[in-house]
UniProtKB/TrEMBL annotation:
GO molecular function, one term: hydrolase activity
Organism annotation: Herbidospora galbida
UniProtKB keywords: Hydrolase
Name of the protein: Alpha/beta hydrolase
Superkingdom of the organism of origin: Bacteria
Coiled-coil regions, chain positions: none
Pfam families with a match to the protein in the record: Abhydrolase_1 (PF00561)
AB hydrolase-1 domain location: 78-329
Length: 350
């Protein structure tokens, strides 16, 4: 790619971030302002305020991960919740609140996310995340457990299955994979025409590299343009934007906005190269639940169907009119599926 073309792409990325102030002002006056005037049933929901006992996990490459342990300490089963890309353990709000009543719950922030330590140029591969999860289990889970992963968190579980298959069926009694993929994310169209999608995918690696190099400038633009982020997330992250709570969108957008641009750029190549389809056979040893929204643009339903085909013993739940943040958008359906999975794991069913 020529220097002129690379500079042009960089200009688009940095310019778009810098232009966020003016565009966001217009959006706030019209679209965002009107949305926020609608009745909001979740306006008083204490998002981000759940807490357990603080724990720290030190990885084999000396990175400190933030975690919390909640629920009855003598519960016979622990549920480990693994969050997705650009989110934090708070994204499990509804699941955490329900599960801690009966089960021991471990939530943790993936490396460089949330309250976990952030170090420049640290290993940000999916395989590394799988090793982190193994350390979390070793340090914080004394007995049997069920693993639940959303998006990149689901990929983390797949990486663990690839590297530590002996844990499944013995230590790990069940798995839930929510809005995730076993590979080929680089082929996503995101609803765009094929030619446009191809051009976007071709330009994205260079744009991501610029984003990482100019992270401070991009982050300033992201802070200024948060109303535009609100509108984009409301459209892409949730399936039925007419019913989604503005408070909930704000909550999800705040987690994404708090994720530094260099972290977003650093993990992106790992997501695009992720391929663990051949590792999924080990999940046939334990009860497995696959959950996805039928309007998910980021990890479309066909990716969950591919996982289900590789794990024929699994149950597949397709959530109508829901998108990538299905655990926040339709918590009742997701929670019912998780309780069913955990009860099967307790009985030793498949």
């Amino acid at each position: 790619m020529t220097v002129r073309r690379t500079a042009g792409i960089a200009g688009i990325v940095v310019g778009a971030a810098s232009a966020g102030v003016a565009v966001a002002a217009l959006a706030k006056r019209y679209a965002v302002g009107r949305i926020r005037l609608r009745p909001d049933l979740e306006a008083s929901e204490p998002f981000g305020e759940l807490h357990g006992t603080t724990a720290r996990v030190v990885t084999s490459d000396n990175l400190t991960l933030a975690a919390e342990v909640d629920g009855p300490p003598d519960a016979p089963l622990t549920v480990v919740l693994c969050h997705g890309y650009c989110l934090t353990s708070d994204s499990w709000h509804y699941q955490w609140r329900l599960l801690r009543e009966k089960y021991r719950v471990v939530v943790w922030d993936q490396r460089c996310h949330g309250l976990s330590e952030r170090v420049l140029d640290v290993d940000q591969s999916i395989d590394r995340l799988g090793e982190d999860l193994a350390q979390v289990i070793d340090d914080l889970v004394p007995g049997p457990c069920v693993l639940v992963g959303h998006s990149m968190g689901g990929m983390t579980i797949m990486a663990l299955a690839d590297r530590r298959p002996e844990l499944f069926g013995d230590k790990i009694k069940g798995v839930a994979l929510i809005s995730t993929s076993a590979g080929k994310l680089a082929e996503l169209s995101l609803g765009m025409p094929a030619l446009v999608a191809k051009l976007v995918h071709k330009a994205t690696p260079t744009a991501v590299a610029v984003m990482k190099k100019k992270a401070a400038l991009v982050d300033r633009g992201r802070q200024a343009g948060n109303d535009i982020s609100f509108l984009l997330l409301r459209h892409l992250g949730f399936g039925d934007s007419s019913r989604v709570s503005p408070t909930l969108v704000d909550f999800a957008e705040s987690m994404i906005r708090a994720t530094p641009a260099d972290v977003i750029a650093g993990f992106y190549p790992a997501l695009m190269s992720h391929d663990k389809l051949k590792a999924l056979d080990v999940l046939n040893k334990v009860p497995t639940s696959i959950i996805v929204g039928d309007r998910d643009w980021l990890t479309p339903p066909e990716h969950s169907r591919a996982i289900a085909a590789a794990v024929p013993t699994a149950t597949l739940t397709m959530v109508t009119d829901s998108s990538h943040l299905v655990q926040l958008e339709c918590p009742g359906i997701v929670n019912d599926a998780l309780i069913d999975l955990i009860e099967r794991a307790e009985r030793g069913d498949r």
